[in-house]
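fold-stage: in
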Amino acid sequence: MNPVESSLRCVVVEDQLMFLQLLVAMLAAQPRLEVVATADSVALGRLACINHRPDVLILDLALPDGRGTLVVEALRAVSPSSRVIILSGEASSFVCPRELRDMVPAVVDKTRAYEALSQELAALLQRPGAEWPEPELARPLTPRENEILTLIGRGLSNREIAAKLHLSQRTVETHRKNIAAKVGASGPELIRLAALRHGGLPLV
């Protein structure tokens, strides 16, 4: 499996080039994050969010062409389940607009961005699956399907799952097709869903 398939996709919007480069370098060290785009303005940030619909947006609040909250509004329109970490020199006084609060788990002071951002990203990556949107299932997953989804989320291939559960590879493939039909996702999207749920927490 390509490790990128199970990564959280991240967009970074920051207008200070050196700080942006430091952020991207730090994020590259996170094993389950992939920076898919960067931007240095509200306009480009909005475009990046619309094009990529990232799982995580890391956003400078003060941008040359407007407030960073405008980028969050654009992301909310296309991907309301995304999470946003705001960077600001006025973090202590910033009040998040009510309609955006569900998307913004953290506002980080830029003077201590490295440490605080690392902590917030770790919290996002460890967040229980119940806090991410749940697919509506016509039929619940069986215990065996939940078990296989868990292993998909941990990055195991069909062959590795079969060996671990003492099943034939064909049986695992059949279960995987059934899971895909129930959750409405297959291939890389199924892998990403399982990984986002941190090892396939039960969907029932």
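fold-stage: in (second)
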Amino acid sequence: MKDSQILSTFGPTAAQTAPRPSTRPAPLVFDACHVGVVLRAVLFVETVMGVAALYAVDTFMAWVGLTGVLTCAALPGTLAWLVVACLLKHTLARLPVLTQYAVGSLLGAVTGLYGCGLLALTGFTEHSPWLASACTGALLAGLLVASLVWRARARTPAATTARLAELQSRIRPHFLFNTLNSAIALVRAEPARAETLLEDLSDLFRAALIEHGETATLDEEVALAQRYLAIEQVRFGERLRVHWELDPEAGQARLPPLLLQPLVENAIKHGVEPSAVGGELIVRTRNQGTRVRLDIINSLPPEAQKTTAQTAGHGIALANVSDRLRLLHDVEIEFSAGVRDDRYHVRITFPT
């Protein structure tokens, strides 16, 4: 049976109907445009100033006076930080998250220097602590940014859950329809060979349709990908060469369900199918103590080995996988994808 006889959703029809990656606004880290946020920020800074004043005085009245002076220096800078954070929240949201934290701390350092300048102008301090003021301002600003992040996360647990479910539902039909179309075409072309494939397909559908919950083990994901590749092996024959390098100690690590299969499917779509001689696929797992590394490596057609254009086709699946991983494990995820040594290499590192 020729490959061309197998019905494939990898052709133009599939490309036309493939879902486009959703565009959603970046999370607003600097969402300080609320009266409650302003009041809590001012109270927080005032508390820090009051505690700091305790180190320098012995009497209550002296503490009140010193706290008042420190407040005059710190309050204008605090309010200025909140105003800037509110006015520029949408602009700052377009920056990478780590850059947003850095900008917040830098603004805090500037306000700290401003407060120190006010104290110097009033003659309150004989030697102005410029460096200490900048560091204090940056530290307090970093804590304010962290509190804004925690506030946003506390308000949107339902949105996070809904986002995870939406991403999973986007991948699941793509996964099922591709395997079903291959099975239908095989039944038409070679009924004698279809029985084994349909048994694999039945197991595959059963595994894909059950309710997995928020996570699955790496062993479960590998088993699902092996069923999928068994079906594709019938379609491609010797053109598809699969190598499994599995670490048994990594099998119980948790990750989002139906995550490995779309990556394997992408490898076939962009690495094996376009090549006249087929291609090679390597799935490798490694236990690294408290973390697990998952590598999916596929060869590229000769014409794509010297260009990065091939990476564009991986976009939808990779974006979904990356989003789902970060919803589950947040900053503990390390995700990279790109051409390396004439092969397309996806590497995921996540907690055990």
